[in-house]
Design a protein that fits this description.
- This protein is α/β, with parallel strands linked by helices.
- It contains 12 helices and 10 strands.
- The chain has an 8-stranded parallel β-sheet. It has a two-stranded antiparallel ribbon with strand order 8-9.
- Helix 1 packs parallel to helix 3 and helix 5 runs parallel beside helix 7.
- It is globular.
Amino acid sequence: MTTPDTTALRLGFPVKVLARPGLPSNDARRWQSGPHLRTSLGYLRAIFEHLGQQSIRMYRMSSDLAPYATHPDMPQFHGQIRECAAELAELGKIARDQDLRLSFHPSQYVILNSPDPKLTARSVADLAAQAEMLDLMEMGPESVLVIHVGGTYGDRPAGVRRWAETYPTLPEPVRRRLVLENDDTRFGPADVLSIHESTGVRLIFDHQHFWCLNPERLDLRETLAKFLATWPAGVRPKVHYSSPRTEFREIRRKDRKTGKMVNDLLPPVWTGHADFVNPFEFITFLRLAGDLEFDVMFEAKAKDLALIRARRDLARFAPEIAPRFGIAELAEGDADEAIEEEPAEE
């Protein structure tokens, strides 16, 4: 394992490791089998080892790392985070030694702007559990909890207002680590910028979401700069990046005439994530960003395989940018090997 270059910008990926089969991201057993955070941390240790071998310095941990830790009807699981305090501290030291930036992205069921106070309370409990794990790991302020605004419930301005009203009521560890992301169908960049102005919450710029939902037609470079400026000095911001799927979607449905199940091919929806990152679009984005500094979390379906390929693409197609991410130039002959012949058309 090489000593990490802490000045280089990071590239990261979420949860599931694909480059090395057999690395679970969390203890996924059902409650009857007695799953535990301790088992998840054993998996996480092996993942950290893989990340170190691949010189990957940013990783999003599974939001199910501590199974059933906040389930209201299963108190037998509620103490597992404190039970694993020593193991969390040990893993945190490993992460810091690797300059590994960690984060959580709680599920879509974690909503802070719900009109239902019970749903909001359950969401706060989930966030508090994940913030506690990061605190016990002694991770710095770059390790965050990423969430979306939530639902519109038929009134978008009211949804924005409820989120802003909930924020100051959150436990301090949650407020300290919470960051807010623009989404692709409900709350665009203008919405989260307005929430930042009233609360001070840090913002995550999601590139694909920006193109899917930006009704105010905000300028990309200017908006990116505003999002990055919500982070305090000395704490590097991060952005989310993915490419949209472009292939047909195969849908299984019942034929109205025959009553039989058939496969239909439908056009793509641009909110879907592609397996890999389009290198030319990503490089265009980085060139547009210019000297702005941020880490990049890839949300590609191919996970770490997409990240490894993106590093090679940066070295080949953008050698002036690659060193900012600690990526060396392609060795002689690698560029030729990177060209994969397309099969001849019939």
